Request: fold
Amino acid sequence: MLQLTALGLAVCDQIILDRDTQKPSLIGVFTGLSVNDFPSDPQRFSVAAFLTGGVGAATIAVRAVRLASGEQIYRQEGEVSFRDQTDIVNVLFRVRSIRFPEPGFYLFQLLVNDEPVPAAQRRLRVYRSPEQP
Reply:
């Protein structure tokens, strides 16, 4: 594995893959999430990252860390493979059940072989939904 470069990381409502081209469409990209209460009910969304500079296979993970405490509250792993160092790989995770313990900021990071990928991170603000009349 060479030096990986992240071309971006996004958190979104869903990712739709084109049946023919396998191109991803990110739907509902966001940097803030409102929940009804804390700890939150399980939340569902997707995380997408775009990487280049690798060669061969590696273990890849997305994790969420509560910035106020440094506590890791979520982790999901998968496998990724690069044909050569010019290959651009779309890394797509469906986060199916994450609970946020407190309001605040959470850092979503991409790890390859347990090492953070520079620039493959996104800060997410989680806050209580305003009450509806």
Q: What stands out?
A: The mean pLDDT is 94.
